[in-house]
Design a protein that fits this description.
Radius of gyration: 19 Å
Largest sheet: 2 strands, antiparallel
Oligomer: single chain
Helix content: over 70%
């Protein structure tokens, strides 16, 4: 173990943390506003990854275009899902909501397996940016893209929630939907908007997945598990907390996988051990609101 190898691992892990944060930010916005735990968010990311992959490999379109197209496509798909499916589920109890989004997740996953097979694919895209060389440390250009786009996407989620009129309405509708309705806010429209924004974030995140990871129907499951862990670490609905949670998770995985013998097979487990410890000490997460009896 050398200083350069540690620095290399830490920096690469932080680029992946930006991807995790982007996935988790879209999910935590939706969960924080609608209070529906959308298990299908991972499948939305998976669809975005496949769309970016096909646009690049079949039509030679740049991953930049693929990410944008995936964001628009999954935003529209999210609108369709909300209007035909989730708007009704919101009126049901929490157990039915969980089962409904879990069922949607399973449906999308199995359709993807039937259409595209479970085999993993790798998009051999040319570097979108030049590599960054810091002494003996090299960060590939596409990892830099992931870090920058993921961070920008995360900041966009934060800005929408905290610094726009719609974000204020989202917080109001989330805290007290009935009072928000009496105040003249169209709560259903606000919930739909939050779900669509989460879908756009999932689509763009899927493009980032295709750029540096792999594309297969189960990739969404891996990512949504991490996203829920990040939300739990950061605190429910806390978008800034999601960034810290993503960094903790990615660093724990990266350092364990690189420097512990056979760590690649249980780095994920170490990350979730950290999650378990944090939640035992602070059940609301690192930055969640403590609830006192």
């Amino acid at each position: 173990m050398t200083t350069a190898s540690v620095a290399q691992t830490v920096l690469l892990s932080l680029t992946i943390a930006s991807l995790y944060a982007a996935v988790a930010a879209g999910l935590t916005l939706t969960v924080g506003v609608t209070r529906i735990i959308n298990f299908a968010h991972g499948e939305f990311v998976m669809l975005g990854a496949f769309l970016t992959y096909w646009l690049n490999t079949r039509y030679g379109l740049s991953p930049w275009f693929g990410m944008a197209a995936s964001g628009v496509g999954l935003g529209l798909f999210s609108m369709l899902v909300y209007r035909t499916f989730l708007a009704r589920v919101l009126k049901e109890d929490e157990h039915n909501q969980l089962l409904a989004t879990l069922g949607l997740s399973i449906l999308l996953l199995n359709v993807a397996v039937i259409l595209w097979s479970p085999d993993p694919r790798v998009m051999q895209a040319a570097p979108l940016l030049p590599s960054l060389h810091l002494g003996e440390v090299t960060i590939p250009g596409n990892n830099i893209v992931v870090a920058l786009v993921g961070l920008l996407l995360f900041l966009a989620m934060l800005g929408i929630k905290n610094y726009t009129r719609y974000g204020t309405q989202m917080r109001f509708a989330s805290d007290d939907p009935e009072l928000a309705t009496h105040a003249g806010i169209n709560v259903d429209r606000i919930f739909e908007l939050s779900f669509v924004i989460g879908g756009v974030a999932a689509g763009i995140s899927g493009g980032l997945v295709a750029l540096v990871l792999y594309v297969q129907p189960t990739v969404g499951i891996d990512l949504v598990i991490r996203a829920f862990a990040i939300i739990a670490l950061g605190g429910l609905g806390n978008i800034p907390g999601a960034l810290i949670g993503a960094a903790i998770l990615a660093l724990a995985e990266g350092l364990t996988s690189t420097f512990v013998p056979q760590g690649g097979s249980w780095g994920f487990g170490v990350a979730f051990l950290i999650l378990l410890i944090v939640l035992v000490v602070r059940p609301s997460g690192l930055f969640g609101k403590q609830v006192h009896a």
